[in-house]
Amino acid sequence: MPVSFSTFERLKDKGVAAYKTGDYAAAKSYLAQAAEAMIELAESAPTEKLRKQHESLARELLEMAKSCDQRKSAARPARAKEDDDRSSDANDWVIREKPGITFNDIAGLDDVKQEIRLKMIYPFSHPDLATHYGVNVGGGVLLYGPPGTGKTMIARAVAGEIEATMFVVSPAQILSKWVGEAEQNIKKLFDAAKAEPRAIIFIDEIEALVPRRRDSHSTVMTRVVPQILQELEGFDRKAQRSLLFMGATNEPWALDPAVMRPGRFDAKIHVPLPDEPARYRLLEIYLAKRPLADEVNLAALVALLDGFSGADIKAVAERAATIPFLSAVGGGEQRAITLSDVNAAIEQVGRSVQKADLAKYDAFATAN
Ligand SMILES: Nc1ncnc2c1ncn2[C@@H]1O[C@H](COP(=O)(O)OP(=O)(O)OP(=O)(O)O)[C@@H](O)[C@H]1O
Ligand SMILES: [Mg+2]
């Protein structure tokens, strides 16, 4: 019988309750069962997006279940408090990376890159000029647009351009890992970032974390939202040159309006589907680097790929390459990728973004 959502909720609630009271053995068992239930729910999820969200929640629950063993052995009575603090150090739940990619790796999006250079990169590279001309530094940048257009990639490239350390936080991590201690952990995140010479805090899929308050009944949400707003305001006032905040979303209309006020996300940047030159560049990056038959003309493909996202075009290139690869593995000749391989791949991959959704982004861009 398929598992129900209420079964999941019950297991998760029991696990969280046990976790909070320090009964880590029981917590581990319930959380692992809850993760299993969530994996089953993911398998029958009606949309790809929901499936991904379920899967990432399941992973977090599993991690939380695993952490129960450490907590159990670390909880020596006299130092329990200190150990607790250490185990929730930002390093556990935030991915810290130094991305190696730069704007050169990103096809198209010239307007987006220019706006980010002005807002986030030049003030770093030319601090004296920024002061001289009174160019404001700080605040946050929100990237929004359809899925697969390179928002996450851009955030990493900004860190690469200014050689900053990037703190990547996903809302799923925040919501499960931070049970009961969300405020302290958000503070720790900002503190850890401020301690770096240059840092970017990046919250991907930020709509899951900062929804419109009145839509949200979760107590974690109602405490987390004001906390994030306060931290954002705090570093804005102090003009923390070395700390940038970026968020990305493909549901900008789902964000709390308070987060959108000036001083928080003061740059809201629309990351659209690739235009013709960008699609050409995407084909160069992802298709032309592979063995390609002469008959394949990139310029002709550009028109066929109208409405495809960057991620779709990458998928087309990968799919097209798989066809001769598989036949070679099966003992066939080692041939180049043909036009018919590419066409088959285009057919199979298709457009992941619907026209009706595009209109929603345009409307949001006009209104904001
Ligand atoms: N403009 C681009 N240039 C180069 N590669 C791109 C571009 N856009 C998308 N891609 C490719 O597609 C993949 C997915 O892009 P990315 O994850 O950055 O999209 P996203 O906008 O964050 O999507 P989502 O909204 O679903 O999170 C990237 O890893 C990259 O390989
Ligand atoms: Mg993304």
Summarize the structure.
The chain has 368 residues and is of the alpha/beta class.
SSE topology:
Layout: H1 5-21, H2 24-43, H3 48-74, H4 80-87, H5 90-93, E1 95-97, H6 110-125, H7 127-132, E2 140-144, H8 151-161, E3 165-169, H9 171-177, H10 182-194, E4 199-203, H11 219-237, E5 243-249, E6 265-270, H12 276-286, H13 298-304, H14 310-329, H15 339-349, H16 355-367
Parallel strand pairs: 2-5, 2-6, 3-4, 4-5
Antiparallel strand pairs: 1-3
Helix pairs in contact: 1-2, 2-3, 3-9, 10-11, 12-13, 12-14, 14-15
Bound molecules: adenosine-5'-triphosphate and magnesium ion.
What does this structure look like?
The chain has three domains: 5-81; 95-273, P-loop containing nucleotide triphosphate hydrolases (Rossmann fold, 3-Layer(aba) Sandwich); 276-352, Helicase, Ruva Protein, domain 3 (Orthogonal Bundle). It has 368 residues and is α/β, with parallel strands linked by helices. The chain has 16 helices and six strands. Strand 4 (199-203), helix 11 (219-237) and strand 5 (243-249) form a beta-alpha-beta unit. The chain is 57% helix and 8% strand. The chain binds adenosine-5'-triphosphate and magnesium ion. The site of adenosine-5'-triphosphate has 19 residues, from helix 8, helix 12 and helix 14. The site of adenosine-5'-triphosphate (ATP) has 19 residues, from helix 8, helix 12 and helix 14.
